[in-house]
Design brief:
The complex is a heterodimer of chains A (308) and B (414).
Chain A (H helix, E strand, L loop, with lengths): L3 H7 L2 E10 L2 E11 L5 E4 L6 H8 L7 E6 L2 E2 L8 E4 L11 H11 L4 H14 L15 H13 L5 E5 L7 H16 L3 E6 L2 H7 L2 E6 L2 E7 H8 L3 E7 L11 E6 L4 E5 L5 H8 L4 E8 L3 H12 L1
Parallel strand pairs in A: 3-8, 3-9, 6-7, 7-8
Antiparallel strand pairs in A: 1-2, 1-4, 4-5, 9-10, 11-13, 11-14, 12-13
Chain B lengths: L1 H15 L2 H28 L4 E7 L5 H10 L9 E5 L7 H13 L5 E6 L7 E6 L5 H22 L4 H7 L8 E3 L5 E3 L2 H35 L2 H6 L4 H30 L13 H23 L5 H27 L4 H7 L2 H14 L4 H29 L9 H9 L2
Parallel strand pairs in B: 1-2, 1-3
Antiparallel strand pairs in B: 3-4, 5-6
Helix pairs in contact in B: 1-9, 2-7, 3-5, 7-9, 7-10, 7-11, 7-13, 9-10, 10-11, 10-13, 10-14, 11-13, 13-14, 14-15
Classes of the chains: A alpha/beta (308), B alpha/beta (414).
């Protein structure tokens, strides 16, 4: 039996002091991080932050100027090629070739047996609802469907390490949901997943851990929960019936803000929201109570601005 | 190894199916045949009818024997080739006669005329006046017959015996014979030699260009849509390069095979003279070596290109190098042993084509076979080495074309 500890050690990905320099540009500047299996790792940052360069060094496509990448305790070399699944940001497939042929080519490049590859291909084509295009040429498919085919080529060989660079770009909301569910199920299977995006809502919905980079440098690294705690303020949102004017004069309230249908209350740091609720419950009739979390979007913008 | 084969199979099947490949497979030899055959075919057709020529001979001594001799020349179908008209008239002014004869030629009433001036003296001058520069064949015939007539008249005048005259007048041809070391000898004909060796150079050139183009195009596609990144995160660059080179060689062999079949089917017919297949084995060896050499260059330099224009520019450079031997081919046929031809045989860029020519026109010593083949194999090894270094970095560099300095750095990089 495999215990969880083994699994984690087995496919943990670590980057140590990664630096990639081009002639007059340091695209990645001393970045370190760890990707834990089963927890989707979000690599986020504005355009040109160095996300794609980081990914390319992870995948051994380019060599870092210094620093190293370890997977399963060892460097990523050709022995790992078959357990890597990569969906690059810029999409495109062999346009003149048939859907099934392209999928099988990439599957076989990942050392899959042809028979198994055919079975898996059919399974995924069905799951992504593009089975009817199986024998069509890529160029005859819509852009969204081409992206689905490319998604299949990235994951057909059941890789242990998955790298998705902007996986949702070009998909409509329904298909975004479909792909999101698949990615979540991969995480549940204990795969090591890196998700690279500048869509903060996506990262917020999927990622357990975050690395925010800007201009090649780390801006923030840690779990989503801790990042929110760090950047968040102790704020609650309430809706109520009755006179709530007393709230602003309570000793543990820093400030209140009246918005059209509700009131946002910023509490002192040592005041827990549940204690605040207990205090005000006897005084007014509350119809809604929630803790306001800062969106990743806001954190992102604040962090990048603060960084500049 | 399995990955190399997967890549090779994919590249081969995807390209062999393309329209470009199928078209080039059949159109290339068709174009070559057309080029090779059209001139002879046209001149043959032009010969099919009798033509009228005039003679102006102010001395009057050459006209009659000239006409008799010329009208004996026959076309293939037995009809006379020339009809000769006397344009000279005692009562008219010489300048007027010439002027009206010129008019007739320009108005297409006459094909042309022979103008004999100062006949009977040492200052004799003969012109063949016509609209063009005159066919080699006709001028040769006129020259031969005029001299024959002139000399015969002179000898007769000197009272030489008629049997002596007729044997002196007998025209003797000098026949070119190609001799070989094993005592074999064969009739050498400049034109057939030229075309039968030329055809292989042209085939090599077209094959390199068409498959090379396909390769560069597919590399461009893979680069522009970043497929290359998926590929190099699935296999090593070496495997990718090897797979591509194997696939291209496969495409080349498919073409050779089909062209070979076409050639065998049409061999011996009027289209393809049998001697095209003389020395086929060394020809094939040089053909294949030349092909692999150029393809490995294509892979390396092609991987640097990131736009269609760059690729085209690069292809045109290669085609210039490839056609260079054609320029030297005439000299190679006329003077097979010349220094230039020998030197070109040892420069890898021209080895294949020059040797294909030389195999046809001369007997090549075994040591020269061995050294040139060795040179080709060594060059192929180094071009593959060189190309794989360019390829490794080239396929992942987008946008700006790397400078010469950068390229040198790439090649040096371990």
């Amino acid at each position: 039996m495999i215990c969880l500890g083994d699994l984690i050690n087995e496919s943990m990905l670590t980057a140590e002091n990664l630096i990639k320099e081009y002639k007059d540009l340091r695209a990645v500047d001393n970045v370190s991080f760890t990707v834990v299996p089963g927890r989707i790792f979000g690599l986020i940052g504005p355009n040109g932050a160095g996300k794609t360069t980081t990914i390319r060094t992870i995948l051994n496509i380019i060599r870092p100027t210094s620093g190293r990448i370890l997977f399963n305790g060892g460097p990523i070399n050709e022995n790992f090629f078959n357990i890597i699944g990569y969906l690059p940001e810029e999409r495109g497939l062999y346009k003149k070739s048939k859907v099934i042929d392209v999928i099988l080519y990439f599957a076989e490049l990942k050392n899959m047996e042809r028979k198994e590859a055919v079975n898996e291909a059919d399974k995924w084509l069905k799951k992504l609802d593009i089975k009817v295009y199986r024998n069509k040429k890529i160029e005859e498919l819509s852009k969204g469907n081409q992206q689905k085919v490319q998604f299949i080529t990235a994951i057909i060989h059941n890789p242990k390490l998955l790298v998705f660079d902007e996986p949702f770009g070009g998909f409509d909301p329904i298909n975004q949901q479909l792909i999101r569910e698949i990615i979540i199920s991969f995480a549940a299977d204990g795969k090591t997943i890196i998700l690279c995006t500048h869509q903060m809502d996506t990262a917020e919905k999927l990622c357990a851990d975050i690395l925010l980079i800007n201009k090649g440098k780390e801006v923030y690294s840690g779990s989503l929960v801790s990042i929110k705690k760090k950047f968040g303020t102790n704020t609650v949102k309430i809706m109520f019936e009755g006179d709530g004017s007393f709230i602003s004069s309570l000793p543990f309230v820093v400030k209140t803000e009246k918005l059209n249908s509700h009131l946002e209350v910023t509490l002192k740091d040592d005041m827990l929201p549940k204690d605040f609720l207990k205090e005000i419950m006897p005084l007014i009739s509350i119809t809604h109570f929630s803790v306001v979390e800062p969106t990743l979007d806001k954190i992102f913008i604040d962090a990048i601005r603060g960084n500049q | 190894m399995k990955k190399i084969l997967t890549i090779a199979r994919w590249e081969y099947i995807e390209k062999v199916r393309t329209k470009t490949f199928i078209i080039s497979m059949f159109v290339t030899p068709a174009i070559l045949l057309l080029f090779a055959l059209a001139p002879t075919w046209f001149s043959r057709n032009a010969e099919e009818s009798t033509r009228a020529y005039g003679i102006i001979d102010s001395s009057g001594i050459y006209f009659r024997p000239m006409r008799n001799n010329l009208e004996e020349v026959q076309l293939k179908n037995g009809q006379p080739k020339y009809v000769i008209v006397n344009l000279f008239n005692q009562s008219e002014n010489f300048t007027d006669i010439k002027k009206s004869a010129d008019d007739d030629v320009i108005k297409n009433k006459l094909e042309g005329y022979i103008l004999i001036m100062n006949g009977g003296s040492d200052k004799i001058r003969v012109e063949f006046r016509n609209r063009g520069s005159g066919s080699f064949d006709d001028i040769g015939k006129f020259e031969e017959i005029f001299n024959k007539v002139k000399n015969k008249l002179l000898l007769q005048k000197a009272g030489v015996d008629s049997t002596v005259i007729s044997s002196a007048m007998k025209y003797v041809n000098v026949n070119p014979i190609k001799i070989e070391e094993n005592g074999k000898e064969s009739k050498a004909d400049f034109l057939t030699l030229f075309f039968s060796s030329f055809i292989f150079i042209m085939l090599l050139m077209m094959m390199v260009l068409s498959t090379g183009n396909m390769l560069v195009r597919s590399l461009l596609e893979e680069k522009s849509n970043r497929l290359i990144e998926i590929l190099v995160s699935s296999c090593t660059q070496k495997q990718l390069l090897a797979g591509k080179v194997i696939a291209l060689s496969g495409l080349g062999f498919t073409q050779i095979f089909i062209w070979g079949l076409l050639g065998l089917v049409s061999a011996g017919t009027a289209l393809v003279p049998l001697n095209v297949f003389d020395n086929i084995l060394p020809l094939l060896v040089y053909f294949i070596l030349g092909y692999v050499f150029y393809v490995s260059i294509f892979v390396g330099i092609g991987s640097i290109c990131s736009t269609e224009q760059e690729a085209q520019q690069f292809t045109s450079y290669i085609s210039i190098i490839l056609t260079m031997p054609v320029i030297f081919s005439i000299s190679a046929i006329e003077y097979p042993g010349s220094l230039l031809v020998r030197v070109l045989s040892y420069i890898p860029f021209t080895t294949a084509s020059v040797m294909m020519l030389r195999v046809k026109v001369e007997t090549i010593p075994v040591w020269e076979f061995l050294t040139t083949i060795l040179i080709m194999i060594i060059s192929i090894y180094f071009t593959i080495l060189f190309s794989s270094k360019l390829f490794k970095i080239g396929i992942l560099s987008y946008g700006k074309r790397p400078s010469m300095k950068e390229l040198i750095r790439w090649v040096r990089e371990k």
